[in-house]
Amino acid sequence: MFLTMFLLAMVYLVFLAVLLAMDTSQTVVILFMAGFMFLQYFYSDKLILSSMGARIVSENEAPELYQMVSRLCAIADLPMPRIAVVNTSMPNAFATGRNQKHAVVAVTTGIMQQLNRSELEAVIAHELTHVKNKDMMVMTIATFLASIAQMFVQWLPFLGGGSGRDRDSGSNYAILFLVSLVVWAVSFILIRALSRYREFAADRGSAIITGQPSNLASALMKISGFRVPTQDLRRVEGPVSALFIVPAISGSSIMNLFSTHPTTEARIAALQRIEQELEAV
Amino acid sequence: MGFWDSILGKTRLPEAKTDRLFAISTAAVTLEAKLGLKPGGSAGVCIKPMESSRYEAARTEIEDLLKLSFKETGTVYSIQKDEYNYIWVILNDPDFDDLVTNIQMICQILMEQGFGTQLLAAVYSFRGDGTVYLIYNFKLGSYYPFVPRGDQRDTSVEFRLRSLMEKELPLEKDEAKWYPLWGMPI
After folding, report:
1. Contact B13 A208 (CB under 8 A)
2. Among A79, A117, A132, whose Cβ lies nearest the Cβ of B85?
3. Cβ distance A144 to A37 under 8 Å?
4. pLDDT tens, residue by residue, B82-93
5. Which listed site, A141, A154, B38, B54, has its alpha carbon 20 to 30 Å from A55?
6. By CB neighbour count within 10 A (0-12 exposed, 13-18 middle, 19+ buried), where does B83 fall?
7. CA distances (Å), B104 to each of B22, B59, B118, B123, in order?
8. Which residues of A lie closer than 8 Å to B, measured between beta carbons?
């Protein structure tokens, strides 16, 4: 995890250095993007809840869910998040919100039906670990410069080619295009790797908080077995998909290197190792 | 849990803080004088069970120790699982000081065995106009009141208790952390 973060930071530093050296007035674009990403991060709870059709539930509506979450919060010393329910048969859960105070943990009605209480508890502990690990912030920061690079790659051919006032700016644009392309490609792989590490970390957190790694393992098996090709997938793409319990994007055809979540087999194997560690101490 | 632990995704559960657990012993007098609450004769420790054979060993050790120590005090104990799969060690004893001492002992054994992180709460019941619980949260190291009435909490009683007991008992200042414990077997 540290190495991935370090490499990503290096790539971004190089990218920034190139941007500064170029002195091409891209500052406006970057500031605009920064503003956009910040808003997305700041209102992540509202945006994601409404895009997922999640509804915040009160303690009276879901007393068992509240009791389950509040006990886990007491064990892990976390503030109580808001709890939301998504009315869909697709079994999934996610966490969002810019910080611990604004965190929301959401579960679908499908996951509540398919999992027993201990398994659901393990899934919620996984989501609480995402909150505790500040994954929303980490992933937003990690994807920020990558999205700028991506934007350059997509728009520079039109901007650069068209004006052609002098040779200098033309070659500048070419270099910027190439650098952006490399940064985009490399950071894409690194971000996906980071996302998978954070999933493993959240699985581990769940195992430690619940004290029972096998509950999460059996929950993962149940969920992944039931996974159905889904509705509109573009809605849940992007940094946000990192915070789901299982990827909402059907991942079978995508290579492991590019996926946001580790394979279920790898996660279960990791949980098994944690179980052995707990036994050994 | 430090900032870098979070960023690098390392989960460590906070250790239990038991230093202020004992404060209930003196506060019981004030509770009776000011609020008319008498000790309810029962108390319990709630533990999140672990999947480990070591845990089973600790459990038998606790049971053995409880049997020994309870011959002297006459405390009756039972170990139960609640509907959320948490384990409760429940003690019944009309003598409040014996309850406090024995709860303290159970926590000590669990911590010595390395299960301090799995301790959720210790609960003392009091009787007045209905049952009033004082819950000790091991992660916060403080008490808070829990007054269930049907499926609702009587928050007015809880807040009254806080304003009257603030000096006698280390009460949790952040009410957002006054987590209810529904379905307690006490």
Report:
1. yes
2. A117
3. yes
4. 888 899 999 999
5. A141
6. exposed
7. 7, 16, 15, 12
8. 1-2, 5, 60, 63, 67-68, 70-71, 73-77, 79-80, 117-118, 121, 129, 132-134, 138, 197-198, 200-202, 204-205, 208-214, 275, 278-279, 281
Contact B89, B62 (CB under 8 A): yes
pLDDT at residue B39 greater than cutoff 90: yes
pLDDT single digits (tens) A139-196: 999 998 898 888 888 887 776 544 445 556 677 778 888 999 999 999 999 999 999 9
Out of B11, B177, B182, name the one closest to residue A129 (CB): B11
Q: Name the residue of chain B whose CA is nearest to A196's CA.
A: B9
CB–CB contacts below 8 A, A to B: 103
| ipTM above threshold 0.90 | no
pTM for this model (two decimals): 0.84
Task: Kindly list the structural domains of chain B, giving each domain's residue range(s) and its CATH number in brackets, ordered by start.
Answer: 16-175 (3.30.70)
Render the burial of B47-71: b for 16+ CB within 10 Å, e for the rest.
Answer: bbbbbbeebeebbeebeeebeebbe
Domain residue ranges in chain A: 2-280
Among A156-160, A250-254, B59-63, the least confident range: A250-254
Among this protein's residues, is A59 annotated catalytic? no
- Tell me the CA distances in angstroms from B57 to B38, B45, B52, B62, one per residue in order: 36, 18, 9, 9
Residue B176 sits at the chain A interface (C-beta within 8 Å): yes
CA nearest B146: which of B14, B37, B17?
B37
- Asked if B8 and A2 come within 8 Å (Cβ–Cβ), the reply is yes
Tokens of A37: 């990403």
pLDDT at B143: 96
